[in-house]
Each structure stands twice: as C-alpha cells, then as structure tokens.
Design a protein that fits this description.
Number of strands of chain A: 5
Strand content of chain A: 15-25%
Shape of chain B: elongated
Oligomer: heterodimer
Helix content of chain B: 40-55%
CATH class of chain A: Alpha Beta
CATH topology of chain A: Rossmann fold
Number of helices of chain B: 19
Largest sheet of chain A: 5 strands, parallel
CATH superfamily of chain A: Response regulator
Order of helices and strands of chain A: EHEHEHEHEH
Largest sheet of chain B: 7 strands, mixed
Number of strands of chain B: 20
Strand content of chain B: 15-25%
C-alpha cells in the first residue's frame, strides 16, 4: 500500500487512475492543477509517488516537476509523467526535468501499476527511448 | 483646311455649275463687247485716244496681249500655284490709247490666240475670255464716264483710271469666285481674303505703268518703249522673289524629309511622311507608294507600279502612271517586307485658280538630283527597317516588363559592381522598400538592411529563408532564391513571401499537438476503465461498475463530437458546401435547449426572457453553434463569472449575444480566432482543452445558413460573441 498524488486537470482521467489505484489498495490524493499540486507537496507529509500530467492550464506538469526537483524535500520524490503529446521534444523535456517514468496517454492501467510498483521499490529510472 | 472646304461645300447652290458660270461669262462677255461698240455713240472719247487706230497699232496690241498672257511669274504659296501676268497692264494701256471696243477686242484676240496655240482647254479659255471681257468692259465704261469731257490727260483721268482698275479687279475677282465655288467648292470669303490685296495691287500698279507710258508718249513719243522698263523690272523682281520663296520652301521640306528618314518608325508613319516631304521638295502634286506587303499610301490605291530597277529613277509614262497623273517618276523602296515603289508626279486636275499652269509647266526631276533621290529613298527603307526592329524590341521588352511588373514573387537583379539593376514592384510590395532601378541604380551598400540581406544570400537550390520585420511592423518570412548569371556576372534573386505558408505550417503543428491531446485524453479513461472492468470486475460494486460504464459512454460521446468537428472543418477547406437543413424555427427555444448541455454553470448562465423569435435556420446547427459559443464562454471565464445570453430582433436579422466576463481577446487576435486550428494559447500550457475548431466551425455553419458569427471583445473586460441569423416573420 502506498500514498499516491494524482495531478491532472481532466476529471475523468483522475477518476480512472484513482479507481485503478484504489482497487489495488493504494491511498490516493488528487490535485486539479499545478499550483494546488505544489501546495499539497509543500506539506511535511509527502506521498510515496506522484502521477503528474504535463498539459495543464497555467503551470504545466513540466514546470511543476522542475519546481519539485529544485526543492530538497522532493528532489528525489518518484514522479510518473503522463502526457498526451508523444513528440520527441516533449519526451526529452520530461526526462530533462527529472521524471522517473514517462507514460504517454492513453496508457494501460496495468502498466501504470507496474511502474508504480517499480518506482516504489526504488527501481531504476526507465531509460529514455527517443 | 481641306476639311473646312469639304464642310463648306453646301455653300454652293445646286444651280451654280461650271457650265452655268462659263455660259454666263461668255454671254456677259459678248454683251460687254456690244456695249463697248456702242459706247462712242453716247460718250466723247478723250483726246489721248487714237480714233480710228491704225492697223499696225491694233496688231501691236494683239501681240502685247498674247505676250502678257504667256509671260507670267509662277508664285507658289503653300500647296497652290498662282501666276502673276501683265494682262492688266495691256488692258489699261489699251483703254488709254485705243477706242474701247478696239482695246478690249485686241486684248481678247491676243488671249484667244495664245489659248489656241497652246491648245488650252476650250471651256477654261472661254471662261477666261468672258471674264476678261466683263471686267475689261467694266474698267473702260467706268473710265470713260468718269473722265467725261476733260481734254487733257490729267489728275481726273488718273483718278478715273484708278476707280476703273478697282472695278476691273472687283469684277475679275467676282468671276473667279463664281467659277471656283462652282468647280471646286472654294468658299468665296476664303478666296477673297487670299486674293484681293494682290489683285488690287496689280491693277493699281498697272494704272501707274500705263499713266507713265501715256505721259511719256505725249511729251516725247520716241521714249515710249522705256515705259515698259518698270514692267520688265517688276517682272524680274517677282521672278527672283518667287524663285527665292520656292528655294526656301524646298529647303524646309528637305529638312522635313531628313527628319522623316532619321526617325525610325512604322512604315505607315515613316513612308507617308517621307513621301509627302519628297513631293513638296520636287513640287509634285501627288505621291503614291505601293509596298510588296500590299500596303498603299497616297493617291490611287489601285495603281500597280511597273518594275523599277534598283538605284535608278524611272520616268513613268502612259499606263505606268497612277490614275489622273500626267507626269511622274518611280524609285525603288527597300524595306524589310520586300520593298515597293515610291512615285511622285503631277496630275491634270481642273485648277481654275491658276489659268495656265498645268499646260505651261512641265514637271520633271532634274537628272542631277537622281542619285540624291535614290539615296533618300534608300534612307526611307532603312528608317522603316529600323522602326520595325525597334517595334519588335519594344514589344519584347514590354513583355518582359509585364512579367517583372506582374510577377507575384519579387525580382532583384544585382550586377558585378554590386549595384541594384532591378528591384521589381513585387519586391517593393513584399519588403516595403522602394529602390530606384535602371539608370538610377544604387549600390547595395547604400540600401536598407533587408535588401543587403536579400542580395547576399548564398546560391542554394532550395532558396534561403530570410525573416525580418517590415517597417509596418509585420513579421515576414521570405524565401530568397539566388541564381548567378555566369556570362554577365549578375545575380538574380527571386523573393517569395512565405509568411502565410509558414504561419499555416505553425498552425498545423500546433493543431497536431492540440488535437493529439484532445483525442488521447478521453481515450485514457475509456481504455483504463475497460481494462479495470476486465481485470477487477469482481472487486467492483454494482454501483461502481454502472458509474464506470457511464463515464466510458460519456467520454466516447465526447470523442464522437470531436471527430465530427474535425470532419466539418475538413469539409470547409474543400469546396463542398456544409449541409444545412433550413426550416422555420424558434431561436429562443433552441438556445434554451443548448443551455441544458451546461448543467455545471446553471447558476452563472442567465438567458434573457424573450418571446419566441422565428428564424430561418437549421435547428441542429444552431444548437451546435450555441454549444460552441457558450462552451467557450464557460472555458475562458473564472468559476463564478456570469455568462449572459441576450436576444435582439430586427426586421431582417435576429441576433443572439453571448457575453462573458473573461480575459477578453486582444484586437489583433479577434479575427484570427475564427481561423481553423487557431488557438490563442501555447498547446503545452494552455489552460483549456479544445481543438481550435469550435469558432471556425460556428462561423462556417452560420454563414452556410446566411448568417454570421461576430466578436466584440475588450481585453480585461470580456467578450461578446454574436450569432446572427435570418429572421422569418411570425
């Protein structure tokens, strides 16, 4: 069982991730945009893992990730980036910002669970595949 | 002048024919002679009249009259010949010495003899004789009446003679006016203006000469012949002056000829000009030119010239002459189209103004002039050839100029010395830089930055992209292609404005990023829940499964709408019309139905109360448009900001206003938001979803229904979208 924060502006995407994770007995929190995610992650109680969407209004997921890596408390926090864009530039930007896993939408919930397990076990980062 | 004459022809009454005038002159002439024969019976003749005259004197007067008629000075002015004769002198002399009948009849006999000997046309001679008889009789009667019974030739006699001379001139001019009006339609006024001074001067001069002669005769008869000296002197003076005037005229036309052959031009310009000048130089009446190309100039378009050897002047004879000509020469004319023949010569027209010329004068070109004439004619040919070459070059240049002027791409030519030889109008339009070209070429170093960048691009087969900001602030993307012309060392740059293309490419790439986000996002829950249902069906409650299925269905519907929008947008690019099913419908009802699609903004969305508003439109499309517009308002405003919907009904148009209190849209974006795939935001960080198609589709649909979608927006205050439709009466 782990505590996981989902950050996505799209309710139906948050819902499906939440349902998937909760059925596997994970504890799930949600944030609807970048600022609220950063707010949640500035609390002393940190989640075990963050599932972060890139394309969000205002502050993008990449900006949130960059900010998290800049903070000592969250510099090593496992982050799984979700994106609907699958171009090389976005992928590269995601890796550069310090993502542990880069998962293009639409994704298989089984794959998401596998990756969460791997990052929670301290499993290495996924090699960038460009 | 000719045209004026033509125009004045109706002046001539129909009965005034040449036959009538000649008959009148003959009858009046005979009557005049009869009056003169009868005159001594009623008036006393002055003492100086020798009555009866001896036969030798009569014979002398006949001879004098004949000589005075033959010896004339041809005076040429403009294109007409005039003759100065001393007929008046002989007639006045006769009045003073002979009885009236004898004086006039001897003079007429002399003129008639000349006419017979020179075989002048009978009609013309008859007129001349009649005319002289009338005016001569007028002179004599006037003189004899006025001089009265004065015994001595004195002042009274001179005055009487002067008045008589005026009468003579008047009658003579009257007859001339009549015949010219009848024969050639010459307006009398014009003729009188030309002639009166000369005629009167001649008559008065003659009075002087005759008076002097008579005085000498009375004091010292042996010296009488010396009275003829002033006449002879006058004759020579006239002749010299006439020759001088003729020479001047000739020089003038030689200059004109020189100019004609020195100016390259088309045959239809050069040839008539040169031929006319040539005609004037040789005092010919007519010219005719026939070219091998079939063109005719001058008189007698039916003339078929005889073969003319090169570099020779051929005297035309008989049938070789154009119609109505009685003398002429032909010269070969060489031009590019195979040459032709140029002829000048005289005609035998009925020129009444000149009494003798056509018969007394023989026309020819002096043999010594022939080489010059041949050379001049050859020059006409060269001038025509040069003119044709010039015309071809001009046409060719005009074609190239048209290409340069009307090409959509700018053209710039720079020479080896780095001077701009050509900066086409399109180059000027695209870059906004105006450069002189041609003779006022500028060095590239002195040109604005953008020109220097354009002329210094490397020669790449694909061209080089040059971006710059034009003086009007517009950011432009140019594609400059350079071609080096090895032979001349010049380089040619074509400048293509790629701004629209580049923008379209950017829009397209933004669209792909946007649309992949929009399509993939709804697929995520569909696929995720399908997988979850498959794997964890048993662990999910009945209620959960129902909710999940509902989400799948809702997301699938969303995807369907998105795909529909894409298809509509794709259709608006092709020429296919958007299908709309027009019917009478209540706009207010449609708006209310569309609003039910936005339950989450129930509290924020206020729709003005309204009577039903009937429009002619497609109800489904109207709901689609309202959905788009209200959806936009919802997306782009804060969670609590109000969205108002108002109606406005005019006699022809009904409008729906959808007003939000969002951020508003900048002025330069207001029209662009209706472009396909246009999104104000960067796709990576955009706050809202959307394909960039909604407004484009809404406007296309509204227009397909005869309406439109407009936008009024003030940044910071919000936007109002207006859907306008065609009203349909209640």
């Amino acid at each position: 069982m782990a505590t996981i924060l989902i950050v996505d502006d799209e309710p139906s995407v948050r819902d499906v991730i939440r349902d998937t994770l909760e059925l596997e007995d994970h504890v799930v929190f949600e944030a609807v945009d970048g600022p609220s995610a950063l707010e949640t992650l500035s609390q002393p109680q940190l989640p075990d893992c963050v599932v972060l969407d890139i394309m969000m209004p205002g502050i993008s997921g990449l900006d949130v990730l960059t900010e998290l890596r800049a903070r000592p408390a969250t510099s090593a926090l496992p982050v799984i980036l979700l994106t609907a864009a699958s171009d090389d530039a976005t992928t590269w930007a995601g890796w550069s910002a310090g993502a542990n896993v880069f998962l293009p939408k639409p994704f298989d919930p089984g794959a998401l669970l596998d990756w969460i397990d791997r990052v929670l076990e301290g499993g290495g980062e996924m090699e960038p595949t460009l | 002048m000719t045209q004026v004459r033509e125009g004045l022809r109706p002046l001539r009454p129909p009965w005034l024919s040449v036959g009538f005038v000649v008959s009148f002159a003959t009858l009046a002439g005979v009557l005049s002679l009869s009056v003169l024969a009868w005159l001594p019976a009623v008036v006393d003749l002055p003492a100086h009249v020798i009555d009866p005259p001896p036969v030798w004197l009569l014979a002398l007067f006949v001879a004098l009259a004949a000589v005075s008629d033959v010896v004339y000075v041809p005076v040429r002015h403009a294109d007409a010949w005039e003759e100065l004769t001393f007929v008046e002198v002989v007639i006045i002399w006769g009045v003073l010495i002979l009885p009236p009948f004898a004086a006039l009849s001897t003079a007429l006999l002399g003129f008639a003899l000349v006419a017979l000997l020179l075989r002048r046309p009978a009609v013309k001679s008859l007129f001349n004789l009649g005319s002289y008889a009338i005016s001569g009789a007028g002179l004599m009667i006037t003189y004899l009446i006025l001089v009265g019974d004065s015994e001595q030739f004195g002042l009274r006699s001179v005055l009487a003679l002067l008045v008589g001379a005026v009468v003579f001139t008047t009658l003579n001019l009257f007859m001339l006016t009549l015949i010219l009006l009848a024969a050639e339609g010459v307006p009398p006024r014009e003729l009188l203006e030309e002639q009166w001074a000369l005629s009167l001067g001649m008559a008065v001069g003659s009075v002087g000469v005759a008076t002097v002669a008579l005085s000498i005769e009375q004091s010292n008869p042996a010296l009488t012949p010396f009275a003829a000296l002033p006449v002879i002197a006058l004759w020579y003076a006239y002749r010299a002056s006439s020759a001088h005037a003729e020479g001047r005229e000739r020089s003038r036309w030689l200059v004109e000829l020189g100019q004609a052959v020195a100016t390259p031009g088309q045959p239809q310009v050069v040839i008539p000009r040169a031929a006319e000048a040539l005609r004037r130089v040789y005092a010919a009446d007519e010219y005719a030119v026939v070219l091998a190309s079939g063109h005719h100039f001058g008189t007698d378009p039916a003339w078929v010239p005889p073969p003319v050897p090169p570099r020779q002047v051929r005297t035309l004879v008989g049938d070789e002459l154009p119609d109505h000509w009685d003398a002429g020469v032909g010269i070969r004319l060489d031009d590019q189209s195979g040459g032709g023949v140029l002829a000048i010569g005289t005609h035998h027209q009925q020129e009444w103004a000149t009494r003798h010329l056509p018969w007394a004068r023989s026309w020819s070109v002096p043999e010594t002039d022939e080489p010059a004439l041949v050379a001049l004619t050859a020059a006409v040919g060269s001038s025509v050839r040069a003119g044709q070459t010039l015309a071809e070059l001009t046409a060719e240049t005009a074609k190239l100029q048209a290409v340069v002027d009307h090409a959509t791409d700018g053209i710039c030519v720079v020479d080896q010395q780095d001077e701009v030889l050509l900066w086409s109008p399109a180059a000027q339009r695209i870059t906004g830089v105006d450069l002189p070209d041609g003779l006022d070429s500028v060095r590239t170093a002195d040109t604005p930055d953008i020109v220097r960048r354009i002329v210094s691009v490397p020669a790449e087969p694909e061209g080089v992209e040059v971006s710059f900001e034009r003086s009007d602030g517009q950011q432009l993307d140019l594609q400059v292609t350079r071609v080096d012309v090895a032979a001349s060392g010049t380089r040619v740059m074509t400048i293509r404005d790629m701004t629209r293309e580049r923008r379209a490419e950017r829009l397209k790439s933004d669209f792909i990023a946007t649309i992949s986000h929009e399509l993939r996002t709804p697929i995520t829950p569909i696929r995720g829940y399908a997988d979850l249902l498959r794997r964890r069906w048993d662990r999910m409650s009945e209620e959960k499964r129902a909710g999940v299925l509902e989400t799948i269905q809702e997301r699938a519907d969303h995807l369907t709408r998105l795909v529909d929008d894409l298809l509509v947008a794709a259709r608006t690019t092709s020429d296919t019309e958007l299908g709309v099913d027009m019917q009478r419908m209540d706009l207010v009802d449609a708006v209310r139905e569309a609003a039910t699609g936005f339950p989450e903004v129930d509290g924020r969305l206020s729709i003005a109360a309204s009577e039903p508003l009937w429009v002619h439109a497609d109800r489904t499309r109207v709901i689609q448009i309202i959905n788009n517009l209200v959806g936009n308002a919802v997306k782009y405003t804060g969670p609590d900001a109000a969205i108002e919907v108002r109606f406005s009904a005019g006699p022809e148009r009904v409008e729906v206003f959808i007003r939000d209190h969002g951020a508003g849209i900048a002025a330069d974006e207001q029209e662009r938001v209706f472009e396909r795939f246009y999104r104000i935001e960067d796709p990576m960080t955009m706050r809202t979803g959307g394909s960039g198609l909604g407004l484009h589709i809404s406007r296309q649909l509204a227009r397909a229904m005869g309406g439109d979608v407009r936008l009024n927006s003030i940044p910071g205050e919000g936007s109002t979208f207006v859907l306008q439709l065609i009203a349909e009466g209640t």
